[in-house]
Batch of 2 targets.
Target 1
Amino acid sequence: MNGLSSRAFGPTVLAASIGLAGCAPDAPRPSQPAVAQTRVYVANESSNSVTVVDAESLEVIATIDAKNHATHDLALSRDGRFLLATNLAPGRLSVIDTAGRETVASVYTGARAHVVAFTNDERQAWVANIAEDNVSIVDVRTLRIVGTLPTGKGPTGLAFSRDGRYAYVSNQGDKTVAVVDTVTHAVVKRIPVGTNPHFLTLGPDGRVWGCNTGSNDIYVIDPGTQQVVASFQVGPAPQQIAFGFRGLLGPLAYVTVAGFNKVLVLDADAKRLRLLEEIDVGDAPNGIAANPQGTRLFVVHERSNDLRVIDTGTSQVIATVPVGRKPIRVVVSK
Amino acid sequence: MTRSTRSVPLIALALLVLPASAAFAQSIAAGTARNAVGVLVVVRTDGVETRLRGRGAVRVFEGDTLKMEGKGKALIEIDEGTRLALNGDSVVQVLSRWEKDQGVTRVVRMQRGEVWAKIGDARRGLEIETPVGVLAARSAEVNVRLVSDNEAVATVVTGVGEFSTPFASCELRAGTMSFGQRSQACTPPAATDIRTVVGWSRPLLP
């Protein structure tokens, strides 16, 4: 019953990390600056698996069995050691040990478990269950469900504010985004958005960016006012948003538009949302994520079953990596 | 060897292996409903319903929802050596969590009502989930009452339990109880009169 206590977040590992970082008198000095290995993880819904790609070599390192069905969304811990994957069909969350490249736990959260996000302190993972109109709160240490929050009809997107005070949950059935106070667990506001609101993410400006997959636009919510401060028509079936830079330009918002087979590039300043560029990609682009530097974008395509890598400096696709069937979501180590 | 006789050992092997594996098919046995005062409705994951009135033996599978029709009481023997009783208009779902290092932990998710459980196997725990907190125990006798969607009362009769809300965990020893309320930490353990808490479950026991 100890979940990940001694594996991911417990004091043993933390202490070991601190020990490694300490300065022993005779420790050799590294000849290179420390560079974390960047990994790209792709959830393959129809293969029930997660593909692991090295972000530098762009080689597939492993394919991890989620030990579940219809693997959909992913959340990666900040230290990159644990990956959480929702599985729509059984309503379960797979817990993946990235070092061992295996699924080490399977937790039932609720019917049609759709999206998952770590709280900012990573003590909990919140999972939106579409068919139960609620969010399950998973204690990451014990993997127990310590609470359930009703949020609205058909929750499909989930993001936390920069300060962690609010959670934002998009509800397909209500056409709203519910603002949940993470201290009181009360829904403090329901913000009307468009048709079929889906993906939500925290932008570099501290605002919450979302896609209305049914009304073909994106919108931006200001946590200061809890209002939509901008929206922009992008085309049929926008899916997800990532942020990056093009040389001096940026931050820029990159939006996958499934109906156009394009990634649209927008100025990420919510006060002057405007289209800068369109990048042709593969068939039905869905998930998109940027590397920590914002210089590479990783886009998965649910019909052509591949990951395409865009160099933001040139806006060109520089590589195509075959992954599993119906890849939906991609995350990159931070 | 005919095809059918060849398959018998394979099926037997599968039955042995499945409960401990990470594969969660819809028909993994979880226990047996033994007694109902009133009517216990067992709702399968495909919506099919089976009813138990009085004593009997209705198999319960992973994912099943158990609900009392009207008000009553029911006793279910969970396969891991745990007895579970439902009170009043209870509705619960029988679930599990699998962990590579820990194996399968039985989970009972409460939607409504009151449950009592006696966990017999020290190696396997039971977790009783409510919307505001979860009670985890091994080798213990416990009772959980869901007052509303926003409040639950966890009681440990014998042994030790851990009652966790999103904000805190409280260790409960024998004869103590704790409240879990939405947006609040569990209340510190307080002594309670066990007989009045669990008296309702006694007539069900064999």
Note: The longest strand of chain B covers residues 82-99.
Target 2
Amino acid sequence: MTEQVVERRGRGFAASIWSWVKLISRDPAGLLGLIIVVAFVLWSIIQGILELLASYLKDPRLGWLLLPYNPFIQNLAGAFQPPSWAHLMGTNYIGQDILSRILYSIPYSAAYPAFLVVLSAILIGAVLGISAGYLGGWWDEVLMRVTDAFLSIPAIILAIVVSVLLKASFIGMIYSFIIVWWPIYARLFRAETLRVKAMDYIAAAQLYGVSPLRLFFRYLFINTIDPIIAYAMLDFGNVILGASILNFIGVGLQPGLPILGEMASDGVSWGFPKYWWWAIFPSITILIIALGFVLLGDRLQDIIGGRAAY
Amino acid sequence: MLLSIKDLFVGYRTVMGTLHVLDDVNLNVDKGEIVGIVGESGSGKSTLGQAIARVLPGNAVASGRIMVDGVNLLELSEGEMEKYRGTTVFMILQNPFTSLNPVKTVGYQLMEAARIRMVRSGERYSEDRAYEMAIQALKDLRFPDPEVIMLRYPHQLSGGQIQRVVLAMSLILKPKILIADEPTSALDVTIQAQVINLFKELSREMESAILFITHDISLAYVISTRIVVLYAGRIMEDGDVESIIREPMHPYTQGLIAGVPDLSKFVSGRVKLQSIPGNPPSFLDLPSGCKFHPRCPYVKDICKVQEPPLTRHNNRVIRCWLYGGG
Amino acid sequence: MGMAPIIKTENLRKYYLAYKIGLLDRLFGKKPAWVRAVDNVSIEIEEGETLGLIGESGSGKTTLGKLLVTLEKPDGGKYYFMGEEVTEDKIPWVRQQVAMVFQNPYSSLNPRMNVKDIVAEPLGHFDEERVREAMEMVGLNYREHGNKRPRELSGGQVQRVAIARAIVKRPRFIVLDEPTSALDASLQAQVLNLLMDLKEELKLTYLFITHNLAVAYYIADRVAIMYAGKVVEYGDVDEVFKKPMHPYTQLLMKSIPTIGRKALEPPTGEVPSLINPPPGCRFNPRCPYAMDICREREPEMLSVDKRKVACWLYK
């Protein structure tokens, strides 16, 4: 029986974004998540561009154009200052303003790892998962066993091991995360592909001789990606947390640049509890960013999964 | 009058505002009557069933009166309504595979129904008696090995068997009002016929007021004593089954009957099926005046502007300007 | 009516594995069980005719339809398309000339594609002329509907898109799998009439699969009744309906709700298992006329006048 479908009249891309925003905001937690994520993304883009321009144009001042202080300037006289109007989050052991360091580090400390890892994992997972789900047979069996193996080991442990093997650099950490992260996406894509494969429009496409490449992109990928998007949103938070944990124990650092996890680690080792602000503020930042993604991702999963309350 | 619906309105709150679905629904059903509610998808027929059983989704708003035994069901709180579900109002759903609890045996669920029945009638609960009631109900539904079925889980049964189990449940509960929402649509033709026959037999025994919701007018003919035609959330015609089929008054009813492939039409050669031009309207965009006017072959000016009220003509209730309406 | 049969099958068979047999299962000697979806079916469809294939769920009708458009490969028997035996290498050639319309309109169209792209897909490249023509033939407006997504259209419109897609390449043969079952009553007639007009205009041949006898009567020239993977009766539609010979056909007719007749007389029991069908004639457990031989041997297809029946009653 054809069901009466209540549909948004296609009034354009902007309108459909707005109705998503409205839907998400019906839930206060979702709204909070949305605000945090939007703020995080906007800041990462703006600050990220400034940092790139700074290195491209060889003018480092661009990097702290929007920040209260130059995050690298040392001022031993002003070390260990507690939070005040001058330094909203206090200063560290060599007098650097913690707020500025946090803001400076957000793009490459949180945003780049999150997006690089998740997007790569989605790509790899899509290719492997969709082909396994669609083709079945021994290819599917092989993939399932491989992902089983990966998924049976806690992600963080695996990431640590692999990144140490890859020399513990920032890129090494990213690679190790991607290696650890793709299996879950492969499984998600495979499951969705199994559902989509049973649809008549796939049979129709086979009948009309649609090329494999077109079948992959226009029929399979685009119709399986919905739940993955909601999951990915949650996952950004996971990667940020994971990366910060690795940074905390000294893996994946970039010499000379402030890193959120490392700041927290230094603050705990050397400043806790007397100079609590050194450890606490970076940690809270990590927490808030991750939380934002979790809340937003959760709400998105509810909406896409049809559990959303109007 | 067992069930008396007056001025029922049901709408849904959505991101785009409130959708008006059911409007001006006035319907009386007496015990022993089987009313076939005939409507296409988008007619609001399921909403009507859900409104009476008070199982509308969270974003629904309803106003009007659904009177059973002098009580307006719409005014009851959820807690009070609990006592009405099962023995006063019971609903059979379309999809058999989601009707029963998948983790409990058939026996458990039937005995649960028996327990509810006993408690509500003031009888003391006895497990033996509940078991007896369950077995008897399964026998009435022609299960050859009721003791075995009692031990089965829903996933071990076929669609037809599940619907018969649900019917057994309604035999036990003996509800005053039984709503069947497309209970046989998901079943094969021969199984559907078996279930319908059982349904007809049992309805005589149950003395309930039965609302049989379907999109299939031939099926409604076979099972009902009375037919109510629903379109765009409004009752268009309401009358005795034989006369409404033989002499449909409303243009929509006429169009429905003229368009449906039914073997009775082809007795003497093939007759071309007439189709109603256009599509049923979406609730987002209802036409002004009479909701059927864009597709009506007899449309007049007044139809486009003002919605006709429900009026009575001998034994027929009809909503159409062709028949006056004061 | 046409001359030579455009479609001919001889003892066509399609079996499915009832459950997956993995590595461990093989070690324990688990034997495969086969679902006999289509079991020795021999039919012919003449050019320009509409063959109504009638059956309930589990009858094998959808599988047979898929075999005829090569969406499934047979496990046994032969399939002849336009006189040529269809072997692996002939499949692309067959696919050039056939199309299929599916039951559920919404799941047969890619929800993330526009109507005009959907209709153009069989062509392999976008040809506005032909897409526009196909859409107009089914009563859709290219400008109004072309850029819409399936979910923005009503059920009837979506099915028209599916039909437009099926005819855009001017196929010779179309398999329609319950194309109106999921549609509202008031739209069924529209779509059935459209299909009949298109058949005349484009000189098509149809296999029309349905469980609804009245629809089959309306649209078909000949009908084949399927039960549990086999064809049990096969003949001219007027004759089969006026004088059904096979007991299953007779009981089927008495199970359909028909205006003017309040009583239904269905067969008892359920459709048999396709993995372990009853011995002999598959219908014998439910047949009111079952004889001993029915329980022992499967009946062959017997010719009675121009009718074919698989039933010992007519030997």
Note: The two ends of chain B are 27 Å apart (CA to CA).
